[in-house]
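Changelog-adjacent note: as of this version, every example in the card shows the full chain rather than a window. The one below runs 329 residues end to end.
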Amino acid sequence: MKKENSEKTTNELLLFIYKKRIILLITALVAGIASIIYSLMIPVLYESSAVVFPAATSTVSFSEQRNAKAGAMDFGEEESAEQLIQILQSSRVRNRIISQFNLAKVYDLDPEKSHFNYKLGEEYSDHISFERTRYGSVSISVLDETPELASKIANKIVQLIDTVKNELIKERTIPAFQINKRKLDELKVSLDDLVTEMDSLSQLGVVNAEARANLFSAMNKATNPKDKDFFRNQINVNQNYGSRYDALADLREFRIERMTEQEVSYEQSESDANENFNHKFIVEKAYPSDKKAKPKRMIIVLVSTIAAIVFMLIVLLIKSRLSDLKKSI
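Full-length structure tokens:
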């Protein structure tokens, strides 16, 4: 029963289309001509693309433990690609590109008109896109009416990856470097003070614990009263200041160890703060295209024509149904 009803409905629809074929053909013809004219009015856009891989790490490591999983020659993984896309979509990149290539003029936008910034952002998004490929790389695509300009914009965006990321890194690494430098300077001053005080005690005759133990033996072996008085005086000085000297010696060793560790941290922070690193591998540079990317005029004509036919068919069906309803009332 359902099959018979379905066949009946189909037959009625085909019969209806046949009866209205003239109207539908005229609609298709008008829509086709209109879409052809419209497609010819759309400016031709050329696409240039660059492909880059994010680097797994972008720093020189002074520690065996740091970056143990990622070397300077390793490609970044999915997370690195997503981070790179976030940088590419940032205002730091967008504003530089808009300013350098005067995209407001390229996109024929008037700064005095309302919603200028919004329209400029929309045009930028329509013409410049970033996409992570299935291989983990990032594709930078630029559309423009001039093939040369499209390739220049794409290659400039590739260059800005290092510029912008280094700026972001320096916002954190420069303060860290300054803190490490201050700590290292404090340790050096503290160590110098310890050494100065130990030198003063040494000038008084204070010696280390091992030499101190030999003073009694030296005094007992001395045959000259003058020598005995000398060693006795040395023993008294060491009894008064020996514990202080030992404490300073232990503290000096501790400070030297701390300063050695701090020097490694200082060298790392200095490298991170002052060096400009490369954060990507350029797989493919952008080149001017000799084939248009948009518009696809054939697709525009076909889609527009089919849509017009379908719309007209729906209108005719509704009109016919309303006419039937009026007759039955």
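Structural remarks: The CA atoms of residues 28 and 306 lie 7 Å apart.
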